[in-house]
């Protein structure tokens, strides 16, 4: 987009025609009173990241306090059990995949809403509402934040076997079987479910990373529309 402002409509229209001839999209910003604001655009710090970051922080706080109440406060009050160490790994590992899926859904939801609005209006040449236009412009940032949460979920999951709580629970189960002189046989159904769950998670994260890579300008400029569309649909 190329921002254009001016008090002379004919001159401004001429400049906008030149911009279109160069293959760019002119955006009329009004009179010369907007010139100072346009000149300050390059000095703004991450202007398109404000909404995704604030939304992510709000959702993180909401789910954190929800999980804290359910997994730490409730057992401590009603069962007198101290699970405060869940705050370090268990609760973040539960929050990260939830936020990744919510933010990923918010990446594609505005496109669906835009299509519905276009079908309702019967044309694609009218501007979208401001809230939808701003939402669509920050979809890439929402997707990258979602990818960051998914990556954190992978890291938290990898450290689960070395956690003190997990090692204590495994050792207590072994001691319990030894004292009872009873060995639990392998449940093939549970093994299949567990391995399938992990395999699908790895595949899903790989596709997520692939989607994030193809969204980078340096990569997306090297693929045609059909190739980009293929990755997005998959």
TrEMBL record:
It is found in: Membrane. It is a multi-pass membrane protein. It comes from the Eukaryota. The chain crosses the membrane at residues 53-78, 98-120, 141-162, 197-219. InterPro entries: Fe3_Rdtase_TM_dom (IPR013130), STEAP_metalloreductase (IPR051267). The keyword Transmembrane helix applies. GO terms for biological process: copper ion import. PANTHER family: DUDULIN-RELATED, METALLOREDUCTASE STEAP4. Belongs to the STEAP family. This is Metalloreductase STEAP4. The lineage of its organism: Eukaryota, Metazoa, Chordata, Craniata, Vertebrata. The gene is STEAP4.
